[in-house]
Design a protein that fits this description.
This protein has 261 residues and is an all-alpha fold. 60% of the residues lie in helices and 2% in strands. The chain has a domain at 1-39.
Length: 261
């Protein structure tokens, strides 16, 4: 298949022949096919891309769809992770079931990491092809702190330090801990939120990935219910802020009234 792609490139991209001369024989690369350069428009220089605007447009559309699909799958895995972590302690009652749940959690974390890498690669190529623009409001840079479910939040600085100390006491090396808490390498640890509106949530915001939910995902009952709950909590936070402002204004009025007599 890769050979057919290269033949098509030589037909639609005349300059591809000169670029493929430095590539070793395909027969010698069969063992490591991932090392074969595909010469997609996003991997070329501006001089070459200017000669194939139609191919650049096609790849840009593919990359846009890839970004959207990666985010959709990522949200699905985040929902699965939330369920797996919340219900593990309730379902797992023996060593066998605890081990199975742990394997499930590790599988989900691996899928999340792969989807994150897939999105970052697609986003990078899309940025090269399309350039900066309004689309970046929808497809933003995906950081480790953005990868969290509706009912999760990232660790605070104090919680990260406590986690670091706990891992050190458990015998984990400093290098492994640094990798664990590195946004660019690992999935950032998260903690579930209190289902009841709690103190300290006044400034909490959803991750931007939940503002790009597609229509098909909205029809999902679990997603719809999660977003409805989050909307109610956001409304309650806004009402609490207005109430606190009214209380402060009333207290100030009473202070002024008291000091004026």
């Amino acid at each position: 298949r890769i050979g057919h792609v290269c033949d098509s490139q030589k037909l639609h991209m005349p300059f591809a022949s000169s670029l493929l001369t430095d590539v070793p024989d395909f027969e010698s690369l069969k063992v490591n096919p991932h090392k074969i350069p595909l010469l997609l428009p996003s991997s070329l220089d501006n001089i070459f891309r200017a000669q194939i605007p139609h191919l650049c447009k096609i790849e840009a559309e593919i990359r846009e769809a890839q970004c959207s699909e990666s985010l959709s799958k990522l949200r699905g895995q985040l929902r699965a992770r939330q369920v797996a972590y919340v219900h593990t302690s309730q379902i797992a009652t023996g060593q066998k079931y605890i081990t199975s749940c742990r394997e499930l959690q590790q599988t989900i974390e691996l899928r999340i990491k792969l989807l994150r890498t897939q999105y970052k690669n697609a986003h990078k190529c899309f940025l090269i092809l399309r350039g900066p623009g309004v689309w970046q409001e929808t497809f933003q840079e995906l950081k480790g702190t953005n990868i969290r479910s509706v009912g999760e939040r990232a660790l605070s600085a104090e919680e990260k330090e406590m986690l670091r100390m706990a891992q050190l006491q458990a015998g984990v090396t400093q290098e492994e801990i640094d990798i664990m808490l590195n946004d660019d390498i690992s999935n950032m640890p998260t903690v579930p939120l209190n289902p009841v509106l709690a103190l300290g949530e006044s400034k909490r915001t959803l991750s931007w990935i939940w503002y790009t939910v597609s229509g098909s995902e909205i029809n999902n009952k679990s997603v719809n219910a999660s977003l409805r709950v989050e909307w109610c909590k956001a409304r309650a936070r806004a009402q609490r802020s207005r109430e606190e402002l009214q209380l402060v204004e009333e207290e100030m009025r009473r202070v002024l009234e008291f000091t004026s007599h």
